[in-house]
Amino acid sequence: MPAARGHMMDVAASAPIDPSAIIDPTAVIGQGCTIRQLVQVREFARLGPECVLARGTYIGPGVVVGRHCTIQEYAVIYEPSLLEDGVFVGAAAVFTNNSHPRAVNPDGTPRATDDRDLVGVTVRTGATIGAHAVCIAPLTIGRWALVAAGAIVTENVPDYAQVVGVPARRTGWVGRSGLPLRAEGDGRFVCPVTGDEYTERDGLLTRN
Length: 208
Known about the structure:
Shape: globular
Helix content: under 10%
Strand order of the largest sheet: 3-6-9-12-15-18-20-21
Radius of gyration: 18 Å
Number of helices: 0
Largest sheet: 8 strands, mixed
């Protein structure tokens, strides 16, 4: 089945879009996006320039994805999620959108699909969501944070935090390189790659 391409996409200037991808005509696809096999991009979703959507990725209605994002195989991004620039989402990660999901009403009748109070996941610039992680909305993943593979995130994640486990808990800090920061004492941290310096105060980390 040929892809239904969004009205903002210049096909000639775009990177490869696999013919098996299903892209709603109302979706907006930025310049240079790469979209692999069996991807589905729903109505009114927006992808910024030069994003990569790997095989089987699902982007829900109205989801907004910033520029230079990578979403790996079979990740599921339900509406109304927002991904800022430079976000990485690992394979089979899931962003939920319903705090109290039910298939039926209390009387046993089917629950209408539009009878839901949708809540979203916001992922700030540069953050990484590991493979098979589950982000349970509503929550926000901070800038350049790192969610470990297999983590289940139920609370907001601060900027630069590394969170691990079920439920996810902070185990350290990471810099923009994604590697753990080196503690220098007195709340000071240094990135071993870039040399950037950070300061921890009241459980939050800021770049100096």
